[in-house]
Structure to design on (149 residues):
């Protein structure tokens, strides 16, 4: 973590119920406003705005070195779950995994835990482990795409 910015007076972008539009807008803000001021490899927007559908997070796949697309948008649910902070952290890890070239786990993936970070479903328990598929996909991304940040 190289920084934390809290938008307490107003949002710096127009956050829409369409999460794809919000992701694009946040990416433009990162490229044009945040990066000139603070060097970073990836930025996440956490919001309590409800998105259309059941989406809790979104990110581009394999874009860690892109000034505009190395971003994620995460909706923090307004509930009293004791694990809320850990669940948000799990969603953040999941979305960061996407930017690092990792897709959702499939049934054929093996995992030490019951569920792994790149599972396509969100659970009410924090998730800490990456599956065998996630490790292989990230290695392939590094070897084939050779990202240079």
């Amino acid at each position: 973590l190289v920084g934390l910015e809290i938008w307490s007076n107003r949002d710096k972008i127009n956050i829409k119920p369409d999460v794809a539009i919000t992701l694009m807008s946040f990416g433009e803000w990162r490229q044009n406003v945040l990066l000139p001021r603070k060097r970073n490899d990836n930025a996440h927007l956490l919001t309590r705005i409800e998105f259309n559908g059941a989406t809790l997070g979104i990110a581009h796949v394999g874009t860690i070195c892109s000034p505009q697309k190395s971003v994620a948008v995460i909706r923090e649910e307004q509930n009293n779950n004791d694990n809320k902070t850990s669940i948000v952290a799990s969603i953040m890890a999941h979305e960061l995994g996407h930017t690092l070239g990792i897709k959702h786990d499939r049934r054929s993936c093996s995992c030490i835990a019951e569920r792994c970070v790149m599972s396509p479903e969100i659970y009410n328990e924090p998730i800490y482990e990456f599956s065998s598929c996630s490790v292989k996909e990230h290695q392939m991304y590094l070897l084939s795409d050779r990202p240079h940040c």
Summary: The beta strands are 43-47, 57-59, 71-75. The helical segments are 19-37, 84-99, 132-145. The chain has one domain: 19-143. The first helix runs from residue 19 to 37.
